Amino acid sequence: MQDPNGGRWDDVRIFLAAYRLLSLGMAASRLGVDTSTVSRRIAAFEEHLGVRLFERSREGLLRTRAAEQIFEAAEAMETSNARLSRDASGVEASAEGTVRLTVDPGMAESFVVPSLPRFRAKHPRVDVEIDASPLPRDLVRREADIALRLTKIAGADLVATKVAAETWIAAGAPALVNRLGPISTWDAAPWVTWDRDMAGFPPAQWVARHAGKAPTPLRTSHFASQVAAAEAGVGLALLPAPYTRIRKLERARTTKALAGSVDDWPKSELWLVVHRVLRDVPRVAALWSFLVEEMRAIHGGLPPT
To answer: Which domain range does residue 222 map to?
Structure first.
């Protein structure tokens, strides 16, 4: 196979449209040319590379192994082209394709998924796949494109940025908080907390340290269930402070006797991480920039734009 970088950018651009849409007609419509032009340019690109990139069928185009092999290099050329004229409108115009985001389940359900309509309004050609798992994914092995996690994923080939720092607080349903009134001891309140498999998690350690003798009507390491139980009035739960703004929850009221434990609230950081070679790919850059702005607005208490 010859070097794909020897081809002209226009041919690579047409190849990427055909690769993503798997239709000559749809690629032509996306690029603002006619179908015969797309077909002719792909044929010329195939001749230049010395390989066949697509098989034609009644259903559309079928990618060959050669097409799969050069896709990453073609995206790299797309990234370089976008970098030459880097501005917001340029990124929005060129961003298309699928981005896979790995994120903790609670963050996905409460913050990321509700923000997707705003993202689609800005980038209608970018599709998002969400891996809502508490388990970290290997970005170096491309198990995901971007990670949004409470812990920084380190690696020489990874780029990371902190998008928020948050405090975990005791919160519950308004009716329960009102019934409890100002609390002088955490053991006086019922608690929704983590199961034993999460005993080493700092928020779980805080509950064990300060409310170790409290009634615990529910233990679960499923975070969404904790939030739902707290909203339902089952008990207090230790949650990141932004949840009191987006869910029907209020911060527990305390007396001066609990000042020390309040000063001891657990802290966590929210990190965005991406593989270095993907950072400037337009579809990845679009989601990256959006999540930075969105998460900083949410966790800073500002309305997302």
So the answer is: 165-268
